[in-house]
Write a structure and sequence with these properties.
Elements (H helix, E strand, L loop, with lengths): L1 E4 L2 E4 L9 E4 L2 E3 L7 H7 L7 E3 L5 H4 L2 H8 L3 E4 H7 L10 H10 L8 E3 L4 E2 L2 E5 L8 E5 L4 E3 L5 E3 L6 E4 L9 H13 L4 E3 L9 H10 L4
Parallel strand pairs: 4-5, 5-6, 6-7, 11-14
Antiparallel strand pairs: 1-2, 2-3, 3-4, 8-9, 9-10, 10-11, 12-13
Helix pairs in contact: 1-3
The structure holds zinc ion (2 copies).
Length: 220
């Protein structure tokens, strides 16, 4: 667990930065895969965890959510449109074979969502920015005072096959609606983030790189 911004720590595994979660104050944002369950509980043992808040419900973000919520006795939050998938009442989005396969390997058990979040809600020091597309209920967590954005899989900052650093749209076969996700990438850029923390890849501090990526992105 290493500090990446004021009062925010990155939790990853191996390879470094490949699958990230963040402890932001006493809020765990995202929760790795089900293989991370014991490790997360151990890593967080001397911390206070008051809430687990997800950027979106995918197997590499919700994996240890049930374990952490149960162990620390804290509630789980996600957007209403990803809630049924988190609670196991419907499959995750998109309904692709690739996502089904990765769910078998990585997904953690369902867990009740105590808090549905939406645009403008406060989660710790952050507020919720709806950023649908990758999943219907994908959100970004944005902190005004240092313009820090925790963006889940709206954008990847790593090639998921080679692990080389660089901005990429999330893979189409893991994405519910690519056009809608591109609107969310533009919405992220419009926030003028000073630092971006990703679900996959190291932090980005050079926003010119984000602007260049958007300029090269196909139009809607
Ligand atoms: Zn995802
Ligand atoms: Zn992911």
């Amino acid at each position: 667990m290493r500090p990446v911004a004021e009062n925010v720590w990155q939790i990853d595994g191996f390879p470094p930065n490949a699958i990230n979660a963040y402890l932001a104050g006493d809020v765990l944002i995202d929760a790795g895969t089900r293989w991370d369950r014991k490790r997360f509980v151990k890593l967080l043992a001397d911390r206070r965890v008051a809430l687990v808040a997800l950027t979106h419900v995918h197997p590499d973000h919700q994996g240890a959510a049930h374990e952490v919520c149960t162990h620390f006795g804290c509630p789980l939050a996600c957007h209403e449109l990803d809630r049924a998938a988190m609670e196991g009442r419907e499959p995750m989005h998109p309904r692709s074979r690739a996502l089904r396969c990765s769910s078998w390997i990585w997904a953690g058990p369902p867990h009740p969502v105590a808090r549905s979040i939406r645009e403008g809600d406060e989660v710790g020091d952050f507020h919720v920015v709806e950023a649908p597309g990758h999943t219907p209920g994908h959100v970004i967590y944005f902190r005004e005072f240092d313009r820090l954005a925790i963006v889940g899989d709206v954008l990847n900052h790593m090639n998921l096959i080679t692990t080389v650093t660089g901005l990429h749209e999330p893979p189409r076969f893991f994405t519910h609606d690519q056009t809608e996700n591109r609107r969310s990438i533009r919405k992220l850029a419009a926030l003028r983030p000073a630092k971006v923390l990703f679900g996959h890849g190291p932090p980005l501090v050079e926003s010119a790189e984000l602007d260049a990526f958007i300029a090269a992105m196909p139009p809607d």
